[in-house]
Amino acid sequence: MGKLLTVTLIGIILAFVGERIIRFRDRLRSSRELEPIELPNCHVLKGIEAGSEDIDILPNGLAFISAGLRYPGIQSFAPDKPGEILLLDLTDENPVPVQLKISHGFDVDSFNPHGISTYIDQKDDSVYLFVVNHPQMTSTVELFKFVEEENALVHLKTIRHDLLPSINDLIAVGPDSFYATNDHYFINHIMAQLEKFLGLAWTNVIYYSPKEVKEVAKGFYFANGINISPDNKYIYIADISDHNIHVMKKNSDWSLTPVKVLQLDTLVDNLFVEPTTGDIWSGCHPNGWKLFFHDSDNLPGSEVIRVQDILSENPIVTQVYVNNGSVLQASSVACVYGRKLLVGTVYHRALYCELDEL
Ligand SMILES: *[C@@H]1O[C@H](CO)[C@@H](O)[C@H](O)[C@H]1NC(C)=O
User: Fold this and answer.
1) 3-state secondary structure of 13
2) 282 lies in a domain?
Protein backbone atom coordinates (compact mmCIF):
# COMPACT_ATOMS: atom_id res chain seq x y z
CA MET A 1 0.00 0.00 0.00
CA GLY A 2 2.78 2.41 1.00
CA LYS A 3 4.68 1.55 -2.18
CA LEU A 4 1.61 2.05 -4.33
CA LEU A 5 0.98 5.43 -2.73
CA THR A 6 4.59 6.50 -3.35
CA VAL A 7 4.44 5.41 -6.97
CA THR A 8 1.14 7.24 -7.43
CA LEU A 9 2.52 10.39 -5.83
CA ILE A 10 5.64 10.33 -7.99
CA GLY A 11 3.42 9.83 -11.02
CA ILE A 12 1.30 12.83 -10.11
CA ILE A 13 4.36 15.03 -9.54
CA LEU A 14 5.95 13.94 -12.84
CA ALA A 15 2.69 14.59 -14.70
CA PHE A 16 2.49 18.05 -13.12
CA VAL A 17 6.10 18.93 -13.97
CA GLY A 18 5.67 17.55 -17.49
CA GLU A 19 2.55 19.60 -18.04
CA ARG A 20 4.31 22.73 -16.74
CA ILE A 21 7.29 22.14 -19.06
CA ILE A 22 4.99 21.82 -22.06
CA ARG A 23 3.07 24.96 -21.08
CA PHE A 24 6.29 26.82 -20.35
CA ARG A 25 7.72 25.99 -23.79
CA ASP A 26 4.41 26.95 -25.32
CA ARG A 27 4.40 30.32 -23.56
CA LEU A 28 7.90 30.90 -24.91
CA ARG A 29 6.81 29.90 -28.45
CA SER A 30 9.90 27.72 -28.34
CA SER A 31 9.23 25.92 -31.61
CA ARG A 32 8.18 28.86 -33.75
CA GLU A 33 10.05 29.09 -37.08
CA LEU A 34 10.66 32.40 -38.83
CA GLU A 35 9.96 33.52 -42.37
CA PRO A 36 12.21 36.53 -42.92
CA ILE A 37 10.68 39.86 -43.96
CA GLU A 38 13.26 42.36 -45.11
CA LEU A 39 13.00 46.11 -45.49
CA PRO A 40 14.95 48.25 -47.92
CA ASN A 41 16.90 51.29 -46.70
CA CYS A 42 17.90 49.95 -43.29
CA HIS A 43 21.19 50.08 -41.45
CA VAL A 44 22.32 49.36 -37.92
CA LEU A 45 23.15 52.48 -35.93
CA LYS A 46 26.82 53.04 -35.19
CA GLY A 47 27.81 52.91 -31.54
CA ILE A 48 24.95 50.74 -30.27
CA GLU A 49 26.17 47.23 -29.54
CA ALA A 50 24.84 46.42 -26.08
CA GLY A 51 21.14 47.09 -26.20
CA SER A 52 18.59 49.79 -26.99
CA GLU A 53 15.78 48.30 -24.94
CA ASP A 54 13.26 51.13 -25.06
CA ILE A 55 12.76 54.21 -27.21
CA ASP A 56 10.45 57.20 -27.01
CA ILE A 57 10.18 60.02 -29.54
CA LEU A 58 9.23 63.65 -28.96
CA PRO A 59 6.92 65.42 -31.45
CA ASN A 60 9.99 67.33 -32.76
CA GLY A 61 11.72 64.09 -33.80
CA LEU A 62 14.17 63.71 -30.94
CA ALA A 63 14.34 60.06 -29.92
CA PHE A 64 15.53 58.89 -26.50
CA ILE A 65 17.06 55.43 -26.32
CA SER A 66 17.76 53.48 -23.13
CA ALA A 67 20.96 51.54 -23.72
CA GLY A 68 22.98 48.91 -21.88
CA LEU A 69 20.34 47.06 -19.87
CA ARG A 70 21.58 44.30 -17.59
CA TYR A 71 18.69 42.08 -16.62
CA PRO A 72 18.82 38.76 -14.72
CA GLY A 73 18.94 35.78 -17.05
CA ILE A 74 19.37 37.88 -20.20
CA GLN A 75 22.47 38.15 -22.37
CA SER A 76 24.64 41.27 -22.07
CA PHE A 77 27.57 42.23 -24.30
CA ALA A 78 28.77 44.85 -21.81
CA PRO A 79 27.99 43.48 -18.34
CA ASP A 80 30.40 45.85 -16.58
CA LYS A 81 29.52 49.04 -18.41
CA PRO A 82 26.91 51.38 -16.92
CA GLY A 83 23.81 51.97 -19.00
CA GLU A 84 23.12 55.30 -20.67
CA ILE A 85 20.48 57.38 -22.40
CA LEU A 86 21.19 58.18 -26.03
CA LEU A 87 19.60 60.88 -28.14
CA LEU A 88 18.94 60.57 -31.84
CA ASP A 89 17.64 63.44 -33.97
CA LEU A 90 15.31 61.85 -36.52
CA THR A 91 15.08 65.09 -38.49
CA ASP A 92 18.76 64.68 -39.43
CA GLU A 93 19.40 63.14 -42.81
CA ASN A 94 21.87 60.73 -41.26
CA PRO A 95 21.07 60.54 -37.54
CA VAL A 96 23.87 59.58 -35.15
CA PRO A 97 23.19 58.64 -31.51
CA VAL A 98 24.80 60.87 -28.89
CA GLN A 99 25.08 60.07 -25.21
CA LEU A 100 23.19 62.49 -22.96
CA LYS A 101 25.13 63.98 -20.07
CA ILE A 102 23.58 63.42 -16.66
CA SER A 103 23.73 66.08 -13.95
CA HIS A 104 26.07 65.77 -10.95
CA GLY A 105 24.75 63.94 -7.94
CA PHE A 106 23.20 61.05 -9.84
CA ASP A 107 25.01 57.71 -9.52
CA VAL A 108 25.83 57.04 -13.18
CA ASP A 109 27.99 54.00 -12.31
CA SER A 110 24.98 51.97 -11.22
CA PHE A 111 22.69 53.30 -13.97
CA ASN A 112 20.78 50.40 -15.53
CA PRO A 113 17.98 51.94 -17.60
CA HIS A 114 15.04 49.86 -18.81
CA GLY A 115 11.62 51.25 -19.87
CA ILE A 116 11.40 54.99 -20.58
CA SER A 117 8.68 57.55 -21.19
CA THR A 118 8.72 61.24 -22.07
CA TYR A 119 6.29 63.83 -20.81
CA ILE A 120 5.85 67.40 -22.04
CA ASP A 121 4.41 69.81 -19.50
CA GLN A 122 1.91 71.95 -21.42
CA LYS A 123 2.37 74.78 -18.91
CA ASP A 124 5.93 75.64 -19.89
CA ASP A 125 6.91 73.05 -22.54
CA SER A 126 9.37 71.40 -20.14
CA VAL A 127 10.35 67.93 -21.25
CA TYR A 128 10.60 65.22 -18.60
CA LEU A 129 12.11 61.79 -19.05
CA PHE A 130 10.96 58.97 -16.78
CA VAL A 131 13.39 56.06 -16.65
CA VAL A 132 12.95 52.65 -15.03
CA ASN A 133 16.29 51.93 -13.39
CA HIS A 134 17.76 48.80 -11.79
CA PRO A 135 20.68 49.94 -9.64
CA GLN A 136 22.11 46.82 -7.94
CA MET A 137 19.18 44.92 -9.49
CA THR A 138 16.58 46.85 -7.47
CA SER A 139 13.80 48.85 -9.14
CA THR A 140 13.45 52.62 -9.13
CA VAL A 141 11.99 55.27 -11.37
CA GLU A 142 14.33 58.17 -12.11
CA LEU A 143 12.79 61.47 -13.10
CA PHE A 144 14.91 63.76 -15.29
CA LYS A 145 14.37 67.10 -16.95
CA PHE A 146 15.74 67.28 -20.48
CA VAL A 147 17.88 70.32 -21.30
CA GLU A 148 18.10 70.32 -25.07
CA GLU A 149 20.68 73.12 -25.47
CA GLU A 150 23.16 71.12 -23.38
CA ASN A 151 22.25 67.59 -24.50
CA ALA A 152 21.78 66.88 -20.83
CA LEU A 153 19.44 65.31 -18.32
CA VAL A 154 19.03 66.98 -14.94
CA HIS A 155 18.12 64.45 -12.29
CA LEU A 156 15.10 65.58 -10.26
CA LYS A 157 14.26 62.60 -8.09
CA THR A 158 14.38 58.87 -7.47
CA ILE A 159 11.08 57.13 -6.82
CA ARG A 160 10.90 53.84 -4.93
CA HIS A 161 7.77 52.19 -3.64
CA ASP A 162 6.76 48.85 -2.11
CA LEU A 163 4.19 48.43 -4.88
CA LEU A 164 6.94 48.84 -7.49
CA PRO A 165 9.27 45.91 -6.69
CA SER A 166 10.09 44.77 -10.25
CA ILE A 167 9.32 47.54 -12.73
CA ASN A 168 9.62 46.87 -16.42
CA ASP A 169 8.08 49.82 -18.25
CA LEU A 170 6.07 52.94 -17.59
CA ILE A 171 3.97 55.60 -19.26
CA ALA A 172 4.05 59.11 -17.86
CA VAL A 173 0.65 60.75 -17.41
CA GLY A 174 1.76 63.92 -15.59
CA PRO A 175 4.94 65.76 -14.64
CA ASP A 176 5.34 63.39 -11.67
CA SER A 177 2.79 60.63 -12.20
CA PHE A 178 2.78 57.43 -14.27
CA TYR A 179 1.46 53.94 -14.80
CA ALA A 180 4.07 51.20 -14.47
CA THR A 181 4.17 47.45 -15.06
CA ASN A 182 5.72 45.01 -12.59
CA ASP A 183 7.09 42.06 -14.56
CA HIS A 184 7.54 39.71 -11.60
CA TYR A 185 5.85 39.11 -8.28
CA PHE A 186 8.98 37.75 -6.62
CA ILE A 187 12.15 39.83 -6.41
CA ASN A 188 14.44 36.92 -5.52
CA HIS A 189 16.02 35.75 -8.78
CA ILE A 190 15.36 32.02 -8.26
CA MET A 191 11.78 32.57 -7.16
CA ALA A 192 11.28 34.92 -10.11
CA GLN A 193 12.47 32.20 -12.51
CA LEU A 194 10.22 29.64 -10.81
CA GLU A 195 7.29 32.04 -11.08
CA LYS A 196 7.81 32.22 -14.85
CA PHE A 197 8.15 28.44 -15.12
CA LEU A 198 5.03 27.71 -13.08
CA GLY A 199 3.05 30.27 -15.06
CA LEU A 200 1.77 32.34 -12.17
CA ALA A 201 -0.27 35.30 -13.43
CA TRP A 202 0.72 37.44 -10.47
CA THR A 203 2.13 40.58 -12.11
CA ASN A 204 0.33 43.88 -12.24
CA VAL A 205 0.05 47.54 -13.21
CA ILE A 206 0.49 50.33 -10.66
CA TYR A 207 -0.64 53.94 -10.83
CA TYR A 208 1.83 56.26 -9.12
CA SER A 209 1.51 59.90 -8.12
CA PRO A 210 3.04 61.67 -5.11
CA LYS A 211 -0.45 61.68 -3.54
CA GLU A 212 -1.65 58.20 -4.37
CA VAL A 213 -0.18 54.85 -5.34
CA LYS A 214 -2.42 51.90 -6.18
CA GLU A 215 -2.76 48.69 -8.14
CA VAL A 216 -4.98 49.30 -11.17
CA ALA A 217 -4.74 46.01 -13.06
CA LYS A 218 -3.52 42.51 -12.24
CA GLY A 219 -3.47 38.92 -13.46
CA PHE A 220 -0.68 39.23 -16.04
CA TYR A 221 1.90 36.46 -16.48
CA PHE A 222 4.62 39.00 -17.28
CA ALA A 223 3.34 42.55 -17.72
CA ASN A 224 5.76 44.32 -20.01
CA GLY A 225 5.31 47.32 -22.34
CA ILE A 226 2.72 49.96 -21.46
CA ASN A 227 1.49 52.96 -23.42
CA ILE A 228 -1.48 55.27 -23.89
CA SER A 229 -3.77 56.10 -26.82
CA PRO A 230 -3.35 59.56 -28.42
CA ASP A 231 -6.74 60.67 -27.03
CA ASN A 232 -5.56 59.67 -23.52
CA LYS A 233 -8.58 57.41 -23.04
CA TYR A 234 -7.02 53.95 -23.22
CA ILE A 235 -4.01 52.25 -21.74
CA TYR A 236 -2.33 49.41 -23.64
CA ILE A 237 -0.44 46.72 -21.74
CA ALA A 238 1.64 43.94 -23.29
CA ASP A 239 1.69 40.57 -21.51
CA ILE A 240 4.82 39.13 -23.07
CA SER A 241 4.28 35.57 -21.76
CA ASP A 242 0.64 35.48 -22.78
CA HIS A 243 1.33 36.88 -26.31
CA ASN A 244 -1.20 39.63 -26.14
CA ILE A 245 -2.03 43.29 -25.73
CA HIS A 246 -4.63 44.31 -23.16
CA VAL A 247 -6.71 47.40 -23.85
CA MET A 248 -8.01 49.15 -20.74
CA LYS A 249 -10.13 52.24 -20.34
CA LYS A 250 -8.66 54.93 -18.13
CA ASN A 251 -11.14 56.27 -15.57
CA SER A 252 -11.13 59.71 -13.97
CA ASP A 253 -9.79 58.27 -10.68
CA TRP A 254 -6.94 56.65 -12.69
CA SER A 255 -8.36 53.14 -12.19
CA LEU A 256 -8.50 50.96 -15.31
CA THR A 257 -11.39 48.95 -16.74
CA PRO A 258 -10.64 46.01 -19.07
CA VAL A 259 -11.97 46.54 -22.60
CA LYS A 260 -10.44 43.77 -24.72
CA VAL A 261 -7.41 41.59 -25.28
CA LEU A 262 -5.74 41.25 -28.67
CA GLN A 263 -4.15 37.81 -28.99
CA LEU A 264 -0.96 37.54 -31.08
CA ASP A 265 1.46 34.78 -31.98
CA THR A 266 4.60 36.39 -30.59
CA LEU A 267 6.07 37.65 -27.32
CA VAL A 268 5.13 41.34 -27.28
CA ASP A 269 7.66 43.59 -25.56
CA ASN A 270 7.47 47.42 -25.55
CA LEU A 271 4.58 49.28 -27.17
CA PHE A 272 4.87 52.49 -29.15
CA VAL A 273 1.80 54.50 -30.17
CA GLU A 274 2.07 56.57 -33.33
CA PRO A 275 0.53 59.92 -32.33
CA THR A 276 -1.37 60.75 -35.55
CA THR A 277 -2.77 57.33 -36.51
CA GLY A 278 -2.94 55.72 -33.08
CA ASP A 279 -1.31 52.59 -34.54
CA ILE A 280 0.55 50.43 -32.05
CA TRP A 281 4.05 49.33 -33.01
CA SER A 282 5.95 46.69 -31.10
CA GLY A 283 9.29 44.97 -31.08
CA CYS A 284 8.55 41.32 -30.36
CA HIS A 285 10.38 38.10 -29.55
CA PRO A 286 9.25 35.42 -32.00
CA ASN A 287 10.91 32.72 -29.91
CA GLY A 288 11.22 33.45 -26.21
CA TRP A 289 13.18 30.29 -25.52
CA LYS A 290 16.07 31.64 -27.57
CA LEU A 291 15.86 34.94 -25.69
CA PHE A 292 15.87 33.46 -22.19
CA PHE A 293 18.37 30.66 -22.94
CA HIS A 294 20.93 32.49 -25.02
CA ASP A 295 22.94 30.31 -27.40
CA SER A 296 25.25 32.00 -29.90
CA ASP A 297 24.71 29.09 -32.32
CA ASN A 298 20.94 29.51 -32.19
CA LEU A 299 20.25 33.22 -31.98
CA PRO A 300 16.98 34.85 -31.00
CA GLY A 301 15.47 36.75 -33.89
CA SER A 302 13.50 39.95 -34.20
CA GLU A 303 9.97 40.77 -35.25
CA VAL A 304 8.29 44.14 -35.68
CA ILE A 305 4.52 44.27 -35.77
CA ARG A 306 2.06 47.08 -36.34
CA VAL A 307 -1.52 46.94 -35.01
CA GLN A 308 -4.08 49.22 -36.64
CA ASP A 309 -7.55 49.97 -35.26
CA ILE A 310 -7.08 47.98 -32.08
CA LEU A 311 -10.49 49.09 -30.77
CA SER A 312 -12.34 47.86 -33.85
CA GLU A 313 -13.75 44.36 -34.20
CA ASN A 314 -11.06 43.42 -36.69
CA PRO A 315 -7.75 45.05 -35.86
CA ILE A 316 -5.19 44.72 -38.64
CA VAL A 317 -1.95 43.13 -37.52
CA THR A 318 0.99 43.44 -39.93
CA GLN A 319 4.40 41.85 -39.62
CA VAL A 320 6.61 44.68 -40.82
CA TYR A 321 10.06 43.19 -40.30
CA VAL A 322 11.33 39.73 -39.37
CA ASN A 323 14.98 38.72 -39.02
CA ASN A 324 16.54 35.51 -37.70
CA GLY A 325 19.17 37.30 -35.62
CA SER A 326 21.72 37.70 -38.41
CA VAL A 327 21.11 41.47 -38.38
CA LEU A 328 19.14 42.09 -35.23
CA GLN A 329 18.68 39.95 -32.12
CA ALA A 330 15.92 40.27 -29.53
CA SER A 331 13.96 43.27 -30.82
CA SER A 332 12.15 44.93 -27.90
CA VAL A 333 10.77 48.15 -29.36
CA ALA A 334 9.78 49.66 -32.70
CA CYS A 335 8.95 53.34 -33.17
CA VAL A 336 8.11 55.43 -36.18
CA TYR A 337 8.57 59.10 -36.89
CA GLY A 338 6.99 59.92 -40.22
CA ARG A 339 8.45 57.25 -42.50
CA LYS A 340 11.46 56.59 -40.32
CA LEU A 341 11.47 53.37 -38.33
CA LEU A 342 13.68 52.74 -35.35
CA VAL A 343 13.96 49.24 -33.88
CA GLY A 344 15.65 48.68 -30.53
CA THR A 345 16.77 45.46 -28.88
CA VAL A 346 17.17 44.11 -25.35
CA TYR A 347 20.95 43.61 -25.54
CA HIS A 348 22.03 43.91 -29.19
CA ARG A 349 22.03 46.66 -31.86
CA ALA A 350 19.49 49.20 -33.08
CA LEU A 351 18.15 49.35 -36.62
CA TYR A 352 17.25 52.52 -38.52
CA CYS A 353 15.09 52.29 -41.68
CA GLU A 354 13.54 54.71 -44.12
CA LEU A 355 10.25 53.18 -45.19
CA ASP A 356 8.83 53.71 -48.66
CA GLU A 357 5.32 53.77 -47.33
CA LEU A 358 3.41 52.95 -44.21
C1 LIG B 1 19.54 33.92 -41.30
O2 LIG B 1 19.16 34.72 -42.38
C3 LIG B 1 20.23 35.04 -43.24
C4 LIG B 1 19.73 36.09 -44.22
O5 LIG B 1 18.39 35.91 -44.55
C6 LIG B 1 20.75 33.78 -43.88
O7 LIG B 1 21.82 34.07 -44.77
C8 LIG B 1 21.22 32.82 -42.79
O9 LIG B 1 21.59 31.59 -43.34
C10 LIG B 1 20.11 32.61 -41.76
N11 LIG B 1 20.69 31.90 -40.63
C12 LIG B 1 20.09 30.86 -40.05
C13 LIG B 1 20.81 30.26 -38.88
O14 LIG B 1 19.02 30.43 -40.42
Assistant:
1) helix
2) yes
302 lines ligand 1 (CB under 6 A): no
Residue 179 lies in a domain: yes
User: Does the predicted TM-score (pTM) go above 0.90?
Assistant: yes
Three-state SS sequence of 243-278: CEEEEEEECCCCCEEEEEEEECCCEEEEEEECCCCC
42, 287, 326, 327: residue to mutate for ligand 1 pocket, most atoms within 8 A of CB: 326
- CATH number of the domain within which 45 lies: 2.120.10.30
How many domains does the structure of the chain reveal? Answer: 1
Distance CA 243, CA 224 (A): 11
The finding on whether 326 has its CB within 6 A of some atom of ligand 1 is yes
- The answer to the question of residue 250 being in a domain is yes
Q: Do residues 324 and 36 lie in contact, with contact meaning Cβ atoms separated by under 8 Å?
A: yes
Q: The domain containing residue 261 runs over which residues?
A: 39-354
Task: Give per-residue pLDDT as tens, 60-113.
Answer: 999 999 999 999 889 999 999 999 999 999 999 999 999 999 998 899 999 999
Q: What are phi and psi of 137, to 5 degrees?
A: 65, 20
